[in-house]
Specification:
The chain contains 16 helices and 14 strands. The chain has helices at residues 9-12, 18-29, 45-56, 69-83, 98-110, 126-133, 155-160, 184-197, 238-241, 255-268, 274-284, 289-315, 333-336, 345-355, 370-373, 385-399; strands at 32-33, 93-96, 116-121, 137-145, 151-153, 166-172, 200-204, 231-236, 249-252, 318-319, 327-331, 358-359, 361-362, 376-380. Helix 2 (18-29) packs parallel to helix 14 (345-355). The chain is globular. The mean pLDDT is 96.
């Protein structure tokens, strides 16, 4: 019998992303959107002017598939400054349409059907879908939330997840949605396992410049012994420069691994927006205007984090500490239990826009083992202080 028309089996289980669902509820109810992780303020003027100038100058046709030379050079220079490692801009840097496309290209170009890929849950939802599109098999290893609200990885559990067909591990630091910044010791443990079992590491580092505590700096996994040749480091412009809609990302890897990424990239998008690449080169170049903007954004987000953390604590949410990204992951049960006993995270997040006028994301969307995420919801603080104050006022009015 012919297979029914429609979504393929490997993607039908994913449905519509939770971000689209919760943003739609926010729009429907006029809620303050603390769900989807995009700023409600614009990126820097120098960046927008550079993009407009590029368009006026006629830079509106296809760019080189693996990136505009000026941007590739700027990314390589920035990488050298932050990691101490050299990257040939022509053979080791690939510009993609956002980090999400870089992830897909890495999975499709480097993972064979049947290969195992370890994901640390909770994880950004596209990881699981991307592995499935490549025909890989996900093995989810949880980060355990302690009584102090901090998330930690069990080395024994990670080791036991490695099998004969395991090909890669995906590491996201700073980590969405927990706000965790992996320590050098934690990354060293992961690195030693990769070297021992000849695993690839695919690292999502889009929040690399958005860390808030000096004791928890961002560490590139690729800088650890034995990792430079086996790590694909992914990042993007959108988070650091508040232009998430521009979708400019990149992958940095050895020439051999870059060939795999590029083999898929050329058939996914071929090339990324040319005028945005021209302006991205200005933002990313070390010593340019982007440095000052990134420092100020980090300071503003630290203030926003502290405000929202205090407001949620006052309401009774259980919280750890956000060390990086622009998200707070909160235990909703002390609060939702006042509405109805046993309320799930998804139920609570569907209740919030209508009854409290605020939108959040249920953390179960980031888990393979959904039950682990049910107690948790994610709030985004990449918003103006005016927006956060309004959100806090609405939450106090309805929940306290």
């Amino acid at each position: 019998m012919r297979r029914p028309h429609g979504v393929t089996g490997r993607l039908s289980a994913y449905g519509t992303t939770i971000f689209a669902e919760m943003t739609a509820l926010a729009v429907k109810h006029g809620a303050v959107n603390l769900a989807q992780g995009f700023p409600d303020f614009d990126g820097p003027e120098f960046l927008k002017e550079a993009a407009a100038g590029s368009m006026r100058a006629g830079h509106n046709q296809y760019a080189r598939s693996h990136g505009l030379p000026a941007l590739n050079r700027a990314i390589a220079e920035s990488w050298k400054r932050s990691s101490g490692l050299s990257a040939d801009p022509d053979t080791m840097v690939t510009v993609t349409s956002g980090c999400t496309e870089a992830l897909a290209a890495a999975f499709l170009g480097l993972i064979e059907p049947g290969d195992g890929v370890i994901l640390l849950e909770p994880f950004y939802d596209s990881y699981h879908a991307g592995v499935s599109m490549a025909g890989g098999v996900v093995k989810a290893v949880p980060l355990h939330r302690g009584k102090d609200g901090e998330f930690r990885l069990d080395p024994a559990e990670l080791r036991s997840a490695v099998g004969q067909r395991t090909r890669a591990i995906v590491v996201n630091t700073p980590h969405n949605p927990t706000g965790k910044v992996f320590t050098r010791d934690e990354l060293s443990m992961i690195a030693s396992l990769c070297v021992e079992h000849d695993l690839l590491a695919i690292t999502d580092e889009v929040y690399e410049r958005l860390t808030f505590d000096a004791a928890f700096p961002h560490v590139h996994l690729a800088t650890l012994p034995g990792m430079a040749e086996r790590t694909v480091t992914l990042s993007s412009l959108g988070k650091t420069f508040s232009v998430t809609g521009w979708k400019v990302g990149w992958a940095i890897a050895s020439p051999e691994l870059s060939r795999g990424v590029r083999a898929a990239h050329q058939f996914l998008t071929f090339a990324t927006s040319t005028p945005f690449q021209h302006s991205a080169a200005l933002a990313v170049t070390p010593g340019g205007p982007g440095d000052g903007y990134a420092r100020q954004l980090r300071a503003d987000l630290r203030e926003a984090r502290d405000f929202l953390h205090a407001a949620l604590t006052d309401l009774g949410f259980g919280l750890g500490r956000t060390r990086g990204t622009y998200f707070i992951l909160a235990d909703h049960r002390p609060v939702s239990g006042r509405i109805r006993a046993g309320m799930t995270g998804r139920e609570f997040c569907r209740w919030l826009p209508e009854h409290a006028g605020v939108a959040a994301i249920p953390a179960s969307a980031f888990y393979e083992h959904k039950e682990l995420g049910e107690p948790l919801v994610r709030f985004a603080f990449c918003k103006t202080m005016e927006t956060l104050r309004e959100g806090a006022t609405r939450l106090r009015r309805s929940l306290k």
